[in-house]
Task: structure prediction
Amino acid sequence: MTVRTRIAPSPTGAPHIGTAYIALFNYAFAKRHGGQFILRIEDTDQVRSTRASEVAILEALRWIGLPWDEGPDVGGPKGPYRQSERTAIYREQCDTLVRTGKAYPCFCTTARLDELRTRQEAEKTRIGYDGLCAGLTAEAAHQRIDAGEPCVIRLRTPADGECVLKDYFRDEIRIPWETIDDQILLKADGFPTYHLANVVDDHLMEITHVIRGEEWISSTPKHLLLYEAFGWTPPVFAHLPLLRNPDKSKLSKRKNPTGILFYRQAGYLPEALLNFLGLMAYSPADGNEQFDLETMARTFDLDRVSLGGPIFDIQKLQAFNGRAIRELGADALLARLKAWMLNDQVWSALVPLAQPRLNQLADFVPLTAFVFADRLPLDTAALVKGFENPEQAATLLQIAQWEIERAADWNADTVKALFSRMAEKEDLKFKNLLGLFFTALTGSAVSLPLFDAMALMGRDLCLRRVQYAQETLAADGAALSGKAAKKLMNDYEQRYRKDA
Ligand code: GLU
Result:
């Protein structure tokens, strides 16, 4: 048997550091066993998936240096590797399940499902589908389909007994079937859900080991049931522990930068980042914490994974990174600096922005230095200048953070549009709003054109700068209280998202 593993990201946002962590373990395991590592794009969520996100994911994984043997860009014998190009396959497989009675068409309308939910909530019974359409005869279902009635396809789930889930790292996990809904496999528009596409692909792509984050454990019973329904042998499941903030909470962008591309922009070396990620949930047999990818791939042992929540401690990463930088020869370091930001491409973008503000050539470096920095010196007085109270600045920073995260595209025009919309919603003069962001993002009240500079710095670094500004306010006791933040979240959803 050839070991085949995969990383299967959904292209719905900025490439996440957790994806690099899971990809690393899949890569190391496959290579340790002379196998293959596959990249599959899970873009079945048509609303949230974007091509820009997919491009960024590939770029991020390439930068960090985890080469895949098969994938949407390099192809391979089991392609296509993008789920949106495989819909005919899922439909065909789903038809088989309907024919064999393992799945059934469900005609329940949204109105009925809403009503059902309201009733279940009122009666405090289990929330979920009540199986109304599970009882339809094949003939009755066909008639309704022929009459053009829209339907989804649901998986028939046992009403009693329990699912016995074997995970490589854990004792048997038993989950009563009655707690598991008749999962929708195919939506009314003929698109598969994650569960169907994921299982069909893992089978057809001959994945032998599914190594993924533990947040997927609760989906695994549905997956096992699907394997059984198809009559396929399931792969080995190995759910890795989630990365955590130093306070043990789930790694979040509120407390740590989570975008892989932030680390590139802020000048982390990919090999240091991989070394650091390789120690999350893992300890090498020889106890040596300093290793490269090749060593990890040669020696990796799944039995040495430990489940205690691995702490993503950025200070430790910085120490690793500093060591890696200091170990480079001067020529190698110069080459890294050039590849990073000290190159003509970046300067050509900066020169036209800086030129109108130059009196001497010597002004260029101080004027543009903020583009090359990670954290800038900030003070609360400068951030809150012009606002009624510090909370107003904290509120605007928080809203900007959400808006930056959700912006579909990242360039000078989209950044401008984002701030214009914010000024309008907040009933503030554009200029007054921008003062805060000039300070937070460039460290100064006057600087290069903000939108172009933000486009150049990239979304992830901009997010981090907003976060630093929030931290600066918080250190001076001007953070939003938990209650105020919660209220703001609701308010933001109402005012910004309703019409999005
Ligand atoms: N598309 C899922 C994700 O975004 C894949 C989960 C899995 O590995 O099965 O993480």
User: Anything to note?
Assistant: Residues 8-10, 42, 198, 212, 216 surround glutamic acid (CB under 6 Å). The mean pLDDT is 94. The chain has three domains: 4-85+243-322, 87-240, 380-497.
